[in-house]
Design a protein that fits this description.
alpha/beta; 3 domains; 6-stranded parallel β-sheet; elongated; disordered N terminus
Length: 387
């Protein structure tokens, strides 16, 4: 929203540098755009009393007729931005503008002038997006650097996540007790990033379960998620060298109704008594219902979600909880895949640099360095952060 406030100021600065043409009406391209807008400016009349507004006409060729494209009140600056999606599609289009002064009843008083013929053109580069180029280069460089480091050193440091460290113990406990592992990949669809993160975790978990010769149950609410989780678990058993141990009914579709799904999963918990329950993905009001039922059966429970409203319920009802971005880092933590690890490390460096900049700028603002409060610098920072 703040950039909308800057647009008139930018146009005014641009208009101040326009050369006056031979006519009273001047036409110029809007700088740094795709050629879809033109700035029409004119000199205010000094000898007309009682005029109320301007009417702007345009014709697309010398032989065409003038058609009204807008109005501009007397109190506004004498310029008009004409936007037309046909401009960039017709690079050879020639336009002519005519400005007429109107009285309060919108009767034409006098013609202000007619512009010279003008052809719209687009800018190949948007000079106002230089900061975006710098940010993209920085992110790309960090990503490539850490991807290469992760390929050379598979033990790049990722801080310990207690819930994932306890995964081996939780699966081992299920094996010793001769019970299954319940994995709920959230209740959202594949459009949700939390569901994608959950499925990335499901692969290593299913492989570990297969190696321990334990049964895993994966109930699904969404048909598309069911199809994907089925293939992921099947592939995990194959990678573990135990494809014959995979059973088709281990991964199953339940219901798309939220609380029907929860009731069915709670029923599985009460009947099957799984030793380990994993809730990883996107959850809503059903989070506490699932976690409380699992807690009542005495299962070890590990949860993870990026839903801030549901985290308190998981924290109080589960043994371990992955909070926020820990869910996204879990797949890299478990698999140690160089691509995933390198991506996580690159993101950490980018966040650290932004945090340092925020602290530094806050200190400089406290010390009253006025440059960092200037309009141009604030515009740069806000555009860098995408606001």
């Amino acid at each position: 929203m703040i950039f909308k406030k800057f647009i008139p100021a930018v146009i005014l600065v641009f208009l101040g540098s326009l050369p006056l043409s031979g006519s009273a009406v001047c036409v110029q391209d809007v700088p740094d755009d795709d050629g879809s807008a033109l700035i029409v400016s004119w000199e205010p009349p000094g000898d007309i009393l009682g005029f109320f507004m301007y009417k702007i006409y345009r014709k697309d060729s010398l032989e065409g007729e003038f058609v009204q494209v807008g109005k501009s009140s007397k109190m506004e600056n004498c310029f008009f931005v004409d936007k037309d999606p046909r401009f960039p599609l017709n690079s050879g289009m020639n336009v002519v503008y005519r400005i007429v002064a109107l009285d309060e009843e919108e009767n034409e008083i006098r013609e202000i002038g007619v512009s010279e013929q003008f052809s719209p053109s687009h800018s190949y580069f948007n000079s106002t997006k230089k900061n975006t180029v710098v940010a993209v280069i920085f992110v790309f460089t960090a990503l490539i650097t850490f991807l290469n480091l992760a390929k050379k050193d598979k033990n790049l440091f990722i801080r310990k996540i207690a819930g994932l460290d306890a995964l081996d113990e939780a699966v081992g406990r299920a094996t010793e007790m001769g019970r299954s592992v319940l994995y709920v990949p959230g209740l959202s669809t594949m459009d949700d990033i939390a569901t994608v993160a959950s499925i990335n975790i499901l692969g290593p978990v299913a492989k570990k379960v297969a190696e321990y010769e334990t049964k895993i149950l994966v109930p699904n609410r969404d048909p598309i998620v069911y199809t994907i989780t089925h293939e992921v678990v099947k592939e995990a058993y194959l990678e573990a060298g135990r494809p014959d141990a995979f059973q088709e009914d281990q991964v199953f579709f339940v219901s798309q109704n939220q609380f029907a799904f929860v009731a069915a999963v709670n029923g599985i918990m009460m009947r099957e008594k799984p030793a380990t329950n994993l809730y990883l993905g996107m959850f809503w009001a059903e989070s506490l219902l699932l976690a409380e039922t699992g807690n009542a059966t005495g299962a070890v429970q590990i949860a993870g979600t990026d839903s801030v409203t549901q985290l308190p319920f998981f924290v109080t009802s589960c043994d371990y909880t992955l909070i926020g971005e820990e869910l996204y880092a879990a797949s890299a933590y478990l698999s140690r895949d160089p691509v995933l690890v390198g991506t996580i490390k690159a993101q950490d460096v980018e966040k650290a640099i932004l945090l340092i900049l925020l602290v530094l700028l806050s200190v400089l603002a406290i010390l009253n360095f006025n440059f960092f409060r200037s309009e141009s610098f604030l515009r740069f920072i806000m555009s860098f952060f995408g606001t």
